[in-house]
Amino acid sequence: xxxxxxxxxxxxxxxxxxxxxxxQKALPLIYEDVNLEVGxxxxxxxxxxLVVEVKSVDxxxxxxxxxVLTYLRLSGCKLGLLINFNVALFKTAVKxxxxxxx
Length: 102
Prior knowledge:
Blueprint: H1 3-16, E1 21-31, E2 34-46, E3 50-55, H2 62-75, E4 79-84, E5 94-98
Parallel strand pairs: 3-4
Antiparallel strand pairs: 1-2, 2-3, 4-5
């Protein structure tokens, strides 16, 4: 299925459990005190703390990880999840991403 389908279902399930979830949250880029709208959008932002990027691809690669790290930097969040729904076993689908820690 399309990423948008998985995103919508995950959004619904998280809200059903009472979590505050923002979908397609726009992220501006601040450059020299100017707010630039450059098209960055977080798939799901949960409780203003957790960035979730939804994918449906054959293989996750470095560009997907870079995307989550960019969202973490711009949002000020420390924790992200990169979830690929195009896998046979879901336990292999989730990659935890932490920003600001070595």
